[in-house]
Design goal:
Number of domains: 1
CATH architecture: Sandwich
Number of strands: 17
InterPro entries: AL/BT2_dom (IPR010496)
Structural class: mainly beta
Protein name: 3-keto-alpha-glucoside-1,2-lyase/3-keto-2-hydroxy-glucal hydratase domain-containing protein
GO molecular function: hydrolase activity
Strand content: 35-45%
Mean pLDDT: 92
Order of helices and strands: HEEEEEEEEHEEEEEEEEE
Radius of gyration: 17 Å
Low-confidence stretches: 1-8
Largest sheet: 9 strands, antiparallel
Shape: globular
Pfam family, one: 3keto-disac_hyd
Oligomer: single chain
Helix content: under 10%
Distance between the termini: 34 Å
């Protein structure tokens, strides 16, 4: 099993390098999750009707209220390409993979695997009670299970996994996340280099969610390449929503 997971992961990394031209429909290839025109394919979960909108070919999130919108369908094994930028200092957002696509009672965000997107000033704006700053790695693509999803971090900071190199860009600059999600393993590339990962996720199939959390964030490209399914039990699959 370990060998097969390694083989599939290496195959996934190879696919990241394949240009999106001249492919057969039978081969895995990137498909847009955001069409540049409207919110087709997305479902508002617990934000306002004007929280998410399209302008100049970009998906805009106002950041208010805190909450998410989700994909219409679930995904299991896939490559995800996201181009994003924060427009306010200290902005907070993220993508949830393998999410339940609903929000637990008393919460604003779902159970899922969070791939965090923070603006660089976030650490300076959120000092601890003793005056010290949170770790700078916090704003460079942390990975963690939220609201009950568990993982084993590659680079532990408690239960979270921190990036081993600081590669995110600040307010107004575009960042590129390439995310490999295969059989409970997540590997994150930030602006062209793999720097973070987790494994043994307790859920391995679910919805993708985009997070609204207090500040404007913009997306200009969200693409997904679905890969063959694995052996995933009912307990490892998020409930199917109508």
């Amino acid at each position: 099993m370990k060998h097969s997971i390694t083989t599939l992961f290496c195959f996934s990394l190879t696919l990241l390098c394949i240009p999106n031209v001249g492919h057969s429909e039978d081969l895995p290839h990137y498909k847009p999750l955001f069409n540049g025109k409207d919110l087709t394919g997305w479902v508002n979960v617990n934000t306002d009707k004007d929280t998410w909108f399209v302008r100049d070919g970009m998906l805009i999130c106002t950041g208010h209220p805190i909450g998410v919108m989700r994909t219409e369908k679930q995904y299991e094994n896939f490559l995800l390409h996201v181009e994003w930028r924060h427009m306010e200092a200290g902005g907070n957002s993220g993508v949830f993979a393998w999410s339940e696509g609903t929000v637990p009672e008393g919460k604003r965000l779902p159970k899922g695997m969070e791939i965090q997107m923070l603006e660089l000033e976030w650490v300076n704006l959120h000092k601890k009670k003793d005056g010290t700053l949170p770790p700078i790695a916090y704003v460079h693509g942390e990975l963690f299970g939220a609201n009950g999803l568990t993982t084993i971090p590659d680079n532990p900071r408690g239960t979270r996994s921190k990036s081993i190199e600081n590669r995110c860009k600040g307010k107004g600059e575009w960042n590129v996340y390439d995310v490999v999600c295969v059989d409970g393993v997540v590997k994150l590339s930030v602006n062209g280099k793999f720097v973070n990962g987790v494994r043994n996720a307790s859920v391995k199939k679910g919805y993708l969610c985009l997070e609204s959390e207090g500040a404007e964030i913009q997306f200009r490209s969200i693409q997904i390449m679905e890969l063959p399914p694995g052996v995933t039990s009912k307990a490892q699959t998020a409930p199917l929503l109508k």
